[in-house]
Amino acid sequence: MLNTVYKISQGIRKLSQLSYRSVVIKFVRPNTTYTNVFRSQKQKKEEGGEAIKWILLMIPVTSFGLGCWQVYRLQWKLELIDMLQAKSNSEPIDMPTNFEELNNLEFRPVKVRGEFLHDREIMIGPRALIEEHQAMPRTGSLMSDPKKNQGWLLITPFKISDTGDVILVNRGWIPKSLRPKDKRQSSMVEGEVELTGVVRLTENRRPFMPKNHPEKGSWFYRDLHQMSAHLNCSPVWLDARGIPDPPEGWPIPNQTRVTIRNEHLSYLVTWYSLSALTAIMWHRYFIRKLPLL
After folding, report:
1. How far apart are alpha carbons 232 and 166 in whole angstroms?
2. Are residues 123 and 172 in the same domain?
3. Percent composition of the chain: helix, strand, coil (DSSP 3-state, to 5)
4. In this structure, which of 79, 165, 189, 277 has its CB flanked by the most CB atoms within 10 Å?
């Protein structure tokens, strides 16, 4: 009897041990699976973060390269402006008989002989006075010096003696007080004269600039084709050269603007600033492991 009881107790003990092992196995296996999954996800996340890290590094690198490119562009633009300025101050040549050649002679001084047709003159403005001692001429906008802004460019048709062609000559700048003809009679020379002028091509209308209204006598920019059609002349324009301090009542000559858009310095500062800022942020976040804010 005792033997039987002992055998039964041993059997129950073995059965309980077997059940415990199976339970442990069942619980251990899922835990192992979850650990592998979490480890795999963490590894993928680290790999993704590493890729983003190097991709974001391209922002400061690229912006630095663009800043270097703007340094080159700025130098090129300054040299171009200096070249055009020197060209406008070079020795004058004779006016070519073929006006098509003037397309390659902008800012080049030319000599011409003829007479002014004062009865057909027009004015462009308001424009600011360009003074020779100024390093950078005013732009002629309404934000310029109010005392110097209220002026106009006096444009007078000029009949060439040799060919009879009529061209346009910008005689210079006059203040508001000289707009009436009777205030500048002494400057309205008659007969044949020889003058030197700087060749200028047509001018595109800038954003927000009013349109020309020939029927009202309102001219705001140099549209040679529109002006030549209105005044029945050739689409040729010369900025007259002369003494910077003419007699009282005369227009002030030498009103040539070497206007070339030059914003490369602002672009340079922008790209280098962006490069420095993003490089600091990248180093702080990815190298030092610090929050950005």
Report:
1. 8
2. yes
3. 50, 15, 35
4. 165
**In which region does residue 53 sit, left (phi positive, over 0), alpha (psi from -120 to 50) or beta (all else)?**
alpha
pLDDT score of 89: 85
Confidence band of 257 (pLDDT split at 50, 70, 90): confident
Taking only the tens place, the pLDDT of each residue in 5-52 is: 455 455 545 545 544 444 444 444 445 554 554 555 555 555 556 788
Domain of 282? Answer: 47-91+261-292
Residue predicted with more confidence, 13 or 144: 13
Sign of CA dihedral 224, 101, 260, 174: negative
Q: Which of 58, 55, 53 is nearest to 284 (CA)?
A: 53
Over range 284-293, report the average pLDDT. 85
Q: Could you give the number of structural domains in the chain?
A: 2
81 and 258 Cβ atoms separated by less than 8 Å: yes
**Same-domain check for residues 128 and 251:** yes
- Contact between 120 and 214 under an 8 Å Cβ cutoff? The reply is no
Question: In angstroms, rounded to a whole number, what is the distance separating the alpha carbons of residues 107 and 265?
Answer: 25
